TrEMBL record:
RNA helicase aquarius beta-barrel domain boundaries: 494-661
Protein name per the record: Pre-mRNA-splicing factor
Organism of provenance: Tuber melanosporum (strain Mel28)
Segments of this protein annotated with the region Disordered: 733-782
Major localization listed first in the record, in broad terms: nucleus
Length: 1386
């Protein structure tokens, strides 16, 4: 497993409970054994909750580690929730809220378990709401309860939660507006709100007293919470100042969450504006305190959402022009009011232009002319609140009201302007700014001032803005981490008295350099002040570098980003004086980083000026110096030049370190630029997809059955193997042969389907969940046709599918072939790649004018999909693979742009030679095969007339076979066919079809030459490649990263496509899923997409996000695939797996809905025979401490376990001794440190011994997703605590990689008691010893079928090691004896 970031995980990791905490003498562990973790638990006693749980927690300050221990002990699941009642104590309520908060903080499932007892939740939620507004509730408890409510409003995908939250933000909260006039004006402005307001009033008036009390509470709750929040900001209690600040920060988070989702924003936004919440926050003592940076940043985020450019009631995003017009209308109202009522003092304001009075300072100077009473009157006239309930201690004075007027009327930046101003290249200020560094030390105890990716977005622009902010933060975090690592290794020190910097260490990612030489500064572009570009040269000294490090530096490619640093170093004495411990200093302070500049590589030259290309073998020849040409960041260069003119030091004089990053991690700039460009463009999503993408409306609205452009006929070609397969594929549907076809006919099949307009309309009123026409059986009309003869050569025979698809796979194929959104959930081994391949094939043949974009997360997955596509009947001319990784394709053809162009030109030669041969057979003189143009002329003048003469003969009456043979003009051309074209016994109709096939073959020859002709005319390689992409290729494949990096280039070429098929969609972040949808320019006001097919599995690993704050708090690891599933979009759940033995699939099939096994698992011998030498097909082996130690951590976050490493290698050696092929064995582990240790053991024990060799793969679980092997040995590593394996998605991946045998080494007590893993481990340990049981006297492969044969237990690591040693010794003596015998025979 790739570990998350190193800086903030440590503290959280240390807080996690160990095995000793959960099973030892810990107070809570003992209580758990007493009340639920025992066969005969003590009866639940409500009073015990306070004495044995609440009081110790309160005494401990509700410390996170104590709460985490209780959560791990299943306190919520086993005791609190099952025993909750409406009369439960407040302590019971608070403890439930605490446990839910811990689960949310740990990113664990919450509502799935809560919903098992749905009747418990409404009273619990109401109790929490009452306690939050009860001022008698202690402040720390209110903080925890508020966190619970924040969690609830982030979980609106749960119907249980949504039902309780919705009334709190309904239109009834407008009862709390400042006046009836303000409310009526709002209702008049938005007529659609009047109906909702009247309905709310009627519901209240017709309710009984108890219901009225409930409705009254619902509409007052948020209002009371806001008033309480205002009081806290203005009247903090000294002894609780920290708790109050935390509460206020969390409350701003709640308001931001409400504002950032349309269902909660619709009515809340106007209430917040009416209450001047932003004004109150900005003028509060908490805001003005210099120490409260997070509070101010949270205010800025709330400000952004309250003023977001959207219509709150229609949900339509406002363009920049519409936003400007609305702002101007507000200013016009202000001017009219000023002129009418304050003409003497505000005449200048009334006559000023909008640009002037839209400036804060200018407007404030005008308002200053008014007296205090006049400011109050102006607010009244503008409809602004001037009074609050008496309990509000905040002073509503002149300053407050002036600020309220200014906030309402000042010109605000749009989100597009905000995004455009943020640089994508870092400097020392942006990389180490406090708001970013705060995210680095996130521990889950408070909010962060970053946007969240949740269930819904306000607009596409809002989604892109959030994604840009978060992706930029994540990229800067990774850069900061890499720079810190390099500087730590360089160890810079400031020397006295010379005050020079000396580096005492070495980093292979960094070089010491001198000042860069500026080569060229291009003049600014029109309308800009910064230079168009700045070219510089950096001298690199390789003298002290090893050969491999030189090679790494020589691998720098154009556009790679490098970093230039001015590092002064820090004197240890200064650090002591300033009391700056290393833990409190950021990277810049710790190492004395004065300047940081980013640059892009142009080229790398040797000392003689010759270009060095990556991998061209010039490193040794080129000597020890290099000249690196780079483009400096022009924005920063302009600032540096201005600073130099102002008398400040030259930043480039002190540059002394150059740092590079690994190539795969250094593509942040083009990706950020792609997202930034999309935020500036008003991306019009396809109308059919927009609401579903944003999370509103009917989740099934984009399904093919709901769309009007569903085709009447779909040709399924080779999807079905025969009629019986067709019938089995549509259970519950009646198949009717169309006129002209008969039941039992052979494929291919064309199915007639009813369009959305022809579907029966649902009743106008029906209950939720009621089926439409449930008793009416759907019928499908089926017709068939005969595939045309394409010619007499083997290459003319169309390739076809041979997989017998299951009914759910067929539904997935049908859905993907139709227009709309298709979401395919593919558990391990269920053939989702085969399904995606067949969808692509069907689209290719059904819609020849359409183009399909194929996207995958990794090159490996893309190549697997591409290899399967090439095996189907798809012309390779129409296939194109973009990006790196194409070289790994296991095909004979090169599908890259250059490879395809070369293939076209090679085919041109071959086809023109065929033209010459055809011309010779027809006796046509001339150089017809000189070019595509001459070939086309030959086709028009000779071939088509010859065929026309033949057709004329056919049209004459009394046609006989002999006449047909004689008149066929191409006998001689087809004389080299493997078999005679017209074999004996052909009927007249069959002979005609054979002749037609021959002409089709010739026609294809000229069609291909016509396609090649543009490549003949285009002279440059670039032009040919661009033509290939934009005109010729019909299936274009690339990774999601390549699409993000090259989006602008691809869009500028005019690339157009109709369909997107995405593999591994659950492993791709939302924005990287979105970008491939927007690689083309809009047509007709929207993106011209007709289909989006997402294949993935959200029960396996999610996208990898390194920073824990962005992963857990901001939910950056969310994929669009997973969000659509959360929203309830229709999914096709593949339900039969054919990868693993049925017994192994049981380890993970409980995670999926009705996942069964394909029949082949019962028929193929490899699934029926036992694993040679093992009693069990899978087994968990408990590994105790080895040499007195379990897990170890030689360096931070580099976790190893020597005992498990030795055991895993011993099992591998044992299997090899029994004859198992090495290529069928994979060793997996969950940590990089353990992978390194196992590799060391393998190198020592196996690598150089031919008897063993190395396994097919040794890698981490995360890296092996999407892969499989026959036998897997898995090391879980951890012995103190579960760690990140508590994420069941990762364990699902780990347990589903093996086909025939899985052997897991780990510490039983660590994983067995984990609630999330309990089901998997109960199955893993079911009826088995936790000691490895081997069967002696067997070699691989075995024909043993029974699973119950007695085995020999291996007691521990030493026992297994000794056994393998004895086997190896015996095997060696045996082989030596055989060698001696062979020599004697010779």
């Amino acid at each position: 497993m790739e570990k998350p970031d190193k800086t903030m995980v440590g503290a959280v990791e240390e807080a996690r409970p160990t095995v000793a905490d959960l099973h030892g003498d810990n107070l809570f562990a003992q209580a758990a054994k007493k009340y639920w973790l025992t066969e005969k638990p003590v009866r639940f006693k409500p009073e015990a909750l306070k004495a044995e749980f609440y009081d110790p927690l309160e005494k401990d300050g509700f410390r996170f580690r104590s709460l985490l221990i209780l959560e791990n002990l299943q306190f919520l699941e086993k005791l609190l929730w099952p025993n909750f009642t409406e009369t439960a104590s407040n302590y019971h309520v608070v403890l439930i809220a605490l446990m839910v908060n811990v689960k949310r903080r740990e990113n664990l499932k919450i509502w799935e378990y809560i919903s098992l007892l749905p009747d418990h939740f409404p009273p619990l939620f109401r109790r929490i709401l009452f306690m939050t507004i009860d001022r008698g509730t202690p402040q720390p408890i209110r903080n925890h309860l508020l966190t619970f409510i924040v969690t609830a409003f982030q979980s609106l995908d749960s119907g249980l939660v949504r039902k309780e939250c919705a009334p709190l933000v309904s239109i009834s909260i407008w009862n709390n507006l400042s006046s009836e006039e303000v409310r009526n004006a709002r209702l008049a402005k938005y007529p659609q709100t009047k109906k909702a307001w009247r309905a709310a009033g009627k519901r209240f008036d017709s309710a009984d007293d108890s219901t009225k009390d409930r409705l009254r509470f619902d509409r007052l709750w948020l209002f009371e919470m806001i008033l309480d929040f205002l009081n806290m900001m203005y009247k903090p209690l000294d002894q609780q100042e920290g708790d109050i600040l935390n509460y206020c920060e969390r409350f701003i988070e709640l308001l931001t969450d409400l504002e950032s989702q349309m269902p909660t924003r619709r009515y809340v936004n106007f209430l917040l504006k009416d209450l001047h919440v932003l004004t109150a926050i900005k003028l509060s003592p908490l805001y003005t305190s210099s120490e409260n940076g997070l509070f101010r940043d949270l205010y800025a985020l709330l400000f952004h959402y309250i003023n977001f450019s959207i219509d709150d009631h229609t949900g339509l995003q406002l363009s920049q022009e519409e936003s400007r017009q609305i702002h101007n209308a507000d200013l016009a109202k202000l001017q009219r009011t000023a002129f009418k009522h304050f003409k003497d003092k505000l005449t200048i304001l009334a006559l000023a232009n909008y640009g002037s009075i839209g400036q804060r300072d200018e407007l404030a100077s005008h308002i200053a002319e008014l007296g205090d009473g006049e400011v109050v009157e102006l607010c009244h006239l503008l409809g602004l609140r001037t009074e609050y309930p008496q309990k509000v201690v905040m002073s509503v004075d002149r300053a407050f009201l002036t600020e309220a007027i200014l906030l309402c009327h000042e010109k605000r930046k749009t989100f597009q302007e905000q995004a455009k101003e943020l640089p994508v290249l870092p400097n020392q200020d942006t990389l180490f700014e406090s708001s970013l560094l705060r995210n680095e030390y996130y521990d889950g105890s408070g909010p962060l001032a970053i946007p969240k990716l949740n269930l819904q977005y306000l607009t596409v622009g809002d989604f892109l803005w959030r994604s840009f902010i978060l992706y930029r933060c994540e990229a800067f975090f990774a850069i900061r981490r890499d720079i810190e690592d390099s500087l730590h290794r360089l160890a810079p020190k400031l020397l006295h008295p010379s005050m020079t910097t000396q580096f005492h260490g070495f980093s292979k990612m960094a070089l010491l350099i001198t000042r860069p030489s500026i080569l060229e500064t291009a003049p600014p572009k029109v309308g800009e002040e910064k230079p168009a570009y700045v070219r510089a040269e950096i001298s690199l000294d390789y003298a002290r570098l090893s050969e491999d490090v030189r090679r790494d530096w020589d691998s720098l490619r154009p556009d790679d980003v490098v970093f230039l640093l001015a590092v002064k170093g820090v004197d240890e004495g200064d650090r002591v004086i300033t009391n700056g411990s290393p833990d409190k200093l950021n990277t810049a302070e710790k190492f004395g980083v004065k300047y940081l500049r980013a640059a892009e590589v142009i080229q790398l030259l040797d000392q003689d000026g010759r270009l060095i290309k990556a991998g061209d073998g010039q490193a040794r020849r080129a000597g020890g110096r290099r000249r690196l040409h780079v483009r400096l960041d022009p924005e920063m260069y302009k600032i540096d030049a201005d600073d130099l003119k102002a008398g400040k030091p030259d930043a480039y004089d002190s540059i002394n370190v150059l740092i590079r990053r690994k190539g795969r991690e250094n593509n942040f700039k083009p990706v950020l630029e792609s997202i930034q460009e999309l935020t500036q463009a008003d991306v019009p999503m396809p109308i059919w997809l927009q609401e579903v993408f944003l999370g509103y409306g009917d989740p099934a609205g984009a399904h093919y059955s709901k769309l009007p452009n569903q085709p009447r006929l779909v040709d399924f070609r080779d999807t079905f193997l025969d009629w019986q397969h067709l019938v089995e594929s549509f259970p519950g549907k009646k198949l009717k042969p169309k006129e002209g076809s008969q039941e039992g006919c052979d494929p291919p099949y064309v199915i007639s389907q009813k369009t959305a307009a022809e579907q029966p309309k649902p009743a106008r009123k029906r209950r939720r969940g009621q089926e439409d026409n449930p008793d009416k059986e759907e019928s499908l009309e089926v017709s068939t046709y005969k595939l045309p003869n394409m010619g007499p050569y083997p290459i003319d025979v169309p390739r076809s599918n041979h997989i017998k698809f299951t009914p759910t796979q067929v539904e997935a194929i049908r859905s993907g072939t139709n227009p709309g959104l298709t979401v395919i959930v593919g558990p391990p081994g269920t053939g989702k790649t085969d399904v995606a391949t067949q969808i692509i094939s069907n689209l290719y043949h059904n819609f020849p004018a359409q183009r399909t974009l194929l996207i995958a997360h990794s090159n490996q997955a893309l190549n697997q999909l591409f290899e399967k596509i090439t095996a189907l009947d798809i012309d390779e001319r129409h296939l194109l693979r973009l990006g790196h990784g194409e070289e790994e394709l296991k095909t004979d053809t090169n599908y890259s742009k250059q490879g395809r162009v070369e293939s076209f030109m090679d085919n041109r030669v071959k086809l023109l030679a065929e033209v010459d041969r055809l011309a010779a057979t027809l006796g046509a003189p001339g150089a017809h095969g000189d070019s595509c143009e001459t070939a086309d002329y030959f086709n028009l003048v000779y071939v088509k007339p010859a065929w026309a003469r033949y057709q004329k003969v056919l049209s004459e009456g009394g046609l006989a076979l002999e006449k047909l043979y004689d008149s066929f003009p191409f006998h001689q051309y087809f004389s080299n066919a493997p078999k005679p074209m017209f074999s004996q016994g052909l009927s007249l109709e069959e002979a005609i079809e054979v002749a037609e096939g021959g002409y089709r073959h010739i026609g294809k020859l000229f069609t291909e030459l016509e396609d090649i002709r543009p490549f003949e005319l285009l002279k440059t390689s670039r032009d040919r490649q661009n033509y290939l992409l934009t005109k010729e290729a019909r299936i274009v494949a690339m990774t999601s990263t390549h699409a993000a990096m090259k989006r602008a280039d691809i869009a500028k070429l005019g690339f157009e496509y109709d369909n997107v098929v995405m593999e591994e969609a659950a492993q791709i972040t939302e924005v990287e899923t979105f970008i491939p949808l927007a690689l083309q320019s809009p047509r007709g006001g929207e993106l011209p997409l007709q289909r989006v097919v997402l294949c993935g599995d959200h029960y396996q690993n999610s996208p990898i996000v390194q920073n824990i704050a962005f992963r857990q708090y901001a939910n950056l690891e969310q994929s669009l695939f997973a969000r659509l599933v959360r929203l309830g979009a229709p999914t096709v759940n593949l339900d039969q797996q054919g990868r693993a033995r049925a017994s192994i699939s049981r380890l993970y099939n409980w995670r999926y809905r009705e996942l069964g096994n394909l029949p082949l698992l019962e028929s193929q011998p490899e699934y029926q025979t036992a694993n040679a030498g093992f009693r069990h097909e899978f087994q968990f082996i408990n590994v105790k401490d080895y040499k007195g130690q379990g897990e170890s951590e030689p360096t931070p976050h580099f976790i190893q376990n020597l005992g498990e490493a030795e055991y895993a290698v011993a099992i591998y050696q044992y299997m090899r001794l029994l004859g198992y092929p090495a290529e069928k064995i994979t060793i997996l582990t969950t940590y990089l440190g353990q992978r390194s240790l196992i590799r060391d053991v393998l190198n020592r024990r196996c690598a150089k011994i031919s008897l063993f060799g190395m396994p097919a793969s040794l890698t981490t679980v995360d890296k092996y997703q999407g892969e499989q092997n026959d036998y897997v040995i898995l090391s879980l590593v951890r012995t103190n605590r579960v760690g990140y394996l508590r994420d069941i998605r990762r364990m699902t991946v780990a347990l589903s990689r093996a086909r025939l045998g899985l052997y897991v080494v780990g510490r039983r007590e660590v994983f067995e008691s984990c609630y999330e893993l309990s089901e998997a481990f109960s199955r893993l340990l079911e009826n088995k010893s936790d000691k490895l049981e081997i069967v002696t006297g067997e070699m691989w492969p075995t024909d043993r079928r029974e699973k119950t044969k007695e085995g020999t237990e291996m007691e521990n690591v030493e026992h297994m090691g000794q056994y393998v040693y004895e086997m190896t010794k015996t095997r060696g003596e045996h082989e030596a004896g055989q060698a001696v015998a062979a020599s004697l025979v010779q």
